[in-house]
Amino acid sequence: xxxxxxxxxxxxxxxxxxxxxxxxxxxxxxVGNASxxxxxxxxxxxxxxxxxxxxxxxxxxxxxxxxxxxLDHLRAQSVRxxxxxDEQHESSHEHSQTxxxxxxxxxxxxxxxxxxxxxxxxxxxxxxxxxNRVEGETYTAIAxxxxxxxxxxxxxxxxxxxxxxxxxxxxxNEEYRxxxxxxxxxxxxxxxx
Length: 193
Description:
Layout: H1 3-6, H2 10-31, H3 34-49, H4 59-99, H5 101-118, H6 123-133, H7 139-146, H8 150-191
């Protein structure tokens, strides 16, 4: 290990000790925290100590280096804070999206409609559909589990999917009619003014 690296030049140490109080005060003004200012002053000394010594070392270099380290520290702090705020915002947004009463009510209503529709299917077709869509079973596994052919599983799934498509179409048509009625009522209401 280089001896210049292991022992600070006495001129640098002397300058740092003479300027330390002013340096910490200035750093505290920048970062707004006494303990962080102390840490940054020490970091400044270490940074200058680790570079080759120079006869032109002056208090200005010490203060400039400290100032730059303080700005770097504030930037890093700002990035961390922004990252934490983004995470909190995403977390609260996900929570509100997932658990809002309206969303929950809509989801429950859709599940209820689906169950009602599935109840109109033959029992085996309903069972095949639930094994595939809810439990994630393959057609081959369903056929083996129920003791039927893969072809029968495919036909049952086609029947269930057709029912689901018809249900989706009916819901879209109902929503379209509701929006159209609402727009029509708004037009009539605005015409009477």
